[in-house]
Write a structure and sequence with these properties.
The protein is α+β, with helices and mostly antiparallel strands. It has two domains: 1-156, 3-Layer(aba) Sandwich (Glutaredoxin), CATH 3.40.30.10; 161-284, Up-down Bundle (Glutathione S-transferase Yfyf (Class Pi), Chain A, domain 2). The chain has nine helices and six strands. Strands 4-3-5-6 form a four-stranded mixed beta sheet. Strands 1-2 form a two-stranded antiparallel ribbon. Strand 5 (128-131) and strand 6 (136-139) form a beta hairpin. Helix 1 packs parallel to helix 3, helix 4 runs antiparallel to helix 6 and helix 7 packs across helix 9. The longest helix has 24 residues, at 191-214. The mean pLDDT is 96. The structure holds glutathione (GSH). Glutathione is lined by residues 1, 26, 29, 58, 60, 90, 123-127, 140-142.
Amino acid sequence: MGVMIDGQYHAEDPGPDTTLNGVFERQKATIRSWITADGSSGFAPEPGRYHLYAAWNCPWAHRALLVRVFKGLEEAISVSYARPRRTKDGWVFDAEGEYADPLLGVTALHEVYARAGVPYTGRITVPLLWDRQTGQPVSNESADIVRMLSDAFPGPDLAPPDLREEIDAWNARIYAEVNNGVYRAGFARTQEAYDAAVIQLFATLDEIEAHLATHRWLCGDSFTEADLRLFPTLARFDVAYHYAFKCNIRRLMDYPNLWAYAREIYQMPGVARTVDFEIYKAGYFSPSELRNPLGIVPKGPMIDWNTPHGRG
Ligand SMILES: N[C@@H](CCC(=O)N[C@@H](CS)C(=O)NCC(=O)O)C(=O)O
């Protein structure tokens, strides 16, 4: 996979975003327009107007797929799914079938980024929210996509004003220590960087486990954006991160509260449609010189996410 500079795609792999200390740092997204309820931003919440570029295995794209389900936007916002294994062209599409791009018919996501009016520089990432009306990208930042779709479209408010501060506080920690924490462990290039990431990751999971002993959700009495943003990491934990990213101090299954909580979310209407464990394995065990040179995909573990969650 390559990188785009001033709207031109370069297929040479820029390598992981790693600092001198071997610490993985995720690049910041730069396409940050916003859909608003009143349309004053130029992007009004019109059904049929927006299209999402996603990949099943990407946890950040998973956030966008989840908000689409929770807001009842599966009809209103169409999706193109890239093939789970990236190539030197990055995220790619087939000419037809489940991994085709019905919107623009591109063969690689970089062709979509190349259409941006402001020449794009950066990595070619999913999710990317696209506006059919202007023929321009709206956002390639999943956190923004979740918040703007929840705010602008009718339906349940996933970040109610009275809980927003608390939600933002959990989001910040969960992003740094859990969502991105697994990548900091998996992409670490020194023992110290790996140790720091994995220890912090499990300290935070332990804390969430304790929180869930007395609370059904992270914030308030109902499912919020904070829960939505934790879920993609939990869904990938035992099948991918535990083994592929060496996040193996404990498994999700070893946390009674967190495991039941994850199953409750998985069993909510529509959520299972956003999950594919076999694709997670294929994606995370793709050939990688550093982590999995032969690209052999493990068979297990076999986990039943439909076991009753027993949370009342
Ligand atoms: N800030 C972005 C990060 C998205 C991201 O890193 N996506 C990964 C897939 S999991 C990607 O597309 N990476 C391609 C690359 O880095 O070349 C977001 O949360 O939306």
